[in-house]
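Sequence dictates fold. Below is an illustrative record:

_____
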Amino acid sequence: MIDKDDIRRRIKARKTLLDDSDRESAAARVFGLLEQTAAFMMADRILMYHSLPDELSTRSFIHKWAGRKHFYLPRVNGLNLEILPYDEQRLALGSFHIEEPTGDDTASVDDMELVVVPAVAYDRRGNRVGRGKGYYDRLLRETRALKVGVGYDFQLMDEDIPAEPHDVRVDVVITETRLLKI
């Protein structure tokens, strides 16, 4: 069986081959598919993530919908993620050089209707490989919201990702060309 560190290395190498136009068109296609789902159309409170340079970019999508949906973003607090409302005027660079919301008005992940989850890779059973710190697994354990994993086509693996008891699966995986309901 493939191990998570090997998956991280393989995906990282594959991402280095992408140019800016590849990245932009992939993000447009993935989030275009997300917009067409009933779950997105009906959701009002959505937990997104602010993308790192090597992740599928969420910025245009957040900007496009920020006036019509209530977006929330995670903020690292010790070993856990806090959730705060997205406000373009209230962002600061956080722990991992990711723009995070500032302020004290934290929300509960229980109040989210949809969670868009980043990952290094997914398999067809909804298992995911993250960056290895467990932030999202700890957060996602607390929610019944629909969990949607997004990524490039090559981030959806044919082989099964090894899962441990604390790993939380996603319900849907969306890539440029596929929408997979688990």
In short: The mean pLDDT is 92. The helical segments are 4-15, 20-35, 38-42, 59-65, 135-140. Residues 20-35 form the longest helix (16 residues). The radius of gyration is 15 Å.
